[in-house]
Amino acid sequence: MSSNEKIVNAIFNEILEDNFIRYKNILNKEPDEGVDIYAKARKVLSLLSDEDKEVVFDFFRITITDTASIILGTIDGSHFPAGIDNDFKLIYGDEEVKGELQDIFIEKAEGKGIYN
To answer: Model pTM?
Structure first.
C-alpha cells in the first residue's frame, strides 16, 4: 500500500466510518430537553420518518466527503481555492505525498456508494 493510500484510508475511516457513525448514533437517540446543537438536531430529526432521516444522513455523508475532497485536492494541487497560489509539500515519514490523495479518496467514496 502506498503512503497516499495509507493516508487516505486513515482519513476516510476516521471521518466516514468512525466519526459519521458516532454522529449518527448521537442524533438517533431519543430527543431530550437539552439546548445544545445535538439536542436541537435530535428534536428536529425525531419529526422525520426513518426513511427521511436516512436521506438527511446520506446528505451529511456527501457533505463530509466533498469537504474532505476539497482539502485533499488543495494539498494535491488539483483544486485551487481562492487565495491559495502556491504548492503544498506534505511529507509522511521520509516520503513526499502528492498528487493522488483526492482521486483515491473519491474512488473510495464512490466504492462505498456515498454519491448514489
So the answer is: 0.85
